[in-house]
Amino acid sequence: VDDVGHDLRLVLVGLDRVGKSAAGNTIMGQEVFESGVSFMPLTLKSESREVELCGRRVMVVDTPGLLNSDLSEEEVRKEMERSLSLSTPGPHAFLLVIQLGRFTEQEKRVMETLEKMLSPSVSDYTIVLFSYGDKLKNNTIDQFIRVDQNLEKLVQKCGGRYHVFNNNDTDNAGQVKKLLDKVDQLTGKNQKNVLSLSTAFIFSKLNMSKYLCEHNKIQQLRHKLSIEILLSTSAPTMLG
Ligand SMILES: Nc1nc2c(ncn2[C@@H]2O[C@H](COP(=O)(O)OP(=O)(O)O)[C@@H](O)[C@H]2O)c(=O)[nH]1
Ligand SMILES: [Mg+2]
């Protein structure tokens, strides 16, 4: 159980070219995900990498852009499912990357798309991660959010959780540390869900039968464990 508590598994999601891979590199502290100015989308498959940060193992899964023109909706959906199996037993948080200063019709639909592809409760585990923090200049991120009602709505839907990255500022370990603090707040809030979250995702409506076969025994064990933990944490209230 300790192991589950200390490891962090994060999945980067969002539209194409908003800086998902760049944000992944910021967390990793090195260029491991392909990110750049190519005319071709660079990330077509979900990929995972691990790094040790502040004494804990942090796994980052990068995914292809939602609503991108080079993959069909079905292909994107498959890669999103694969991102979950890569982050087995399930992610602690989704980082929804939004490019600062770009909030179009597509961005408005992004959460709907995620709910459809992953789980209707995905926003409960999502932190909005703004890229292009360098664009802020003298403004604060709060000012930025407040001027756009739709953006404000999106942040509210994600429980008011957001963070900014300047992915060009590679020397800024503070911005990564602060993000991890926000993830900890989120998982703390969902404390009893840390285990059930993963099982919930795995056992959700996703078509992961192949994956389930391979991991069936582990999953059954985890499920049993999470039920036991839930029972043990709720026992005092049931008795008293
Ligand atoms: N100035 C600036 N450029 C960024 C930032 N984050 C990403 N980019 C650029 O945005 C482009 C798309 O980034 P990429 O990581 O490939 O986006 P992805 O398609 O969402 O994975 C690249 O040219 C990045 O260098 C940022 O914080 N500031
Ligand atoms: Mg990418």
UniProtKB/TrEMBL annotation:
First and last residue of the signal peptide: none
Entry's Gene Ontology molecular function annotations: GTP binding
Gene3D superfamilies given in the database record: P-loop containing nucleotide triphosphate hydrolases
GO cellular component: cytosol; endoplasmic reticulum; Golgi apparatus; mitochondrion
Predominant subcellular localization, coarse grouping: cytoplasm
UniProt keyword list: Cytoplasm, Endoplasmic reticulum, Golgi apparatus, GTP-binding, Mitochondrion, Nucleotide-binding, Repeat
Location of this chain's protein in the cell: Cytoplasm, Cytosol; Endoplasmic reticulum; Golgi apparatus; Mitochondrion
Residue span(s) of domain AIG1-type G: 5-204
InterPro entries cross-referenced by the UniProt entry: G_AIG1, GIMA/IAN/Toc, P-loop_NTPase
Pfam families tied to this protein: AIG1 (PF04548)
Job of this protein: Exerts an anti-apoptotic effect in the immune system and is involved in responses to infections.
The family this protein is said to belong to: Belongs to the TRAFAC class TrmE-Era-EngA-EngB-Septin-like GTPase superfamily. AIG1/Toc34/Toc159-like paraseptin GTPase family. IAN subfamily.
Name of the featured protein: GTPase IMAP family member 8
Lineage: Eukaryota, Metazoa, Chordata, Craniata, Vertebrata
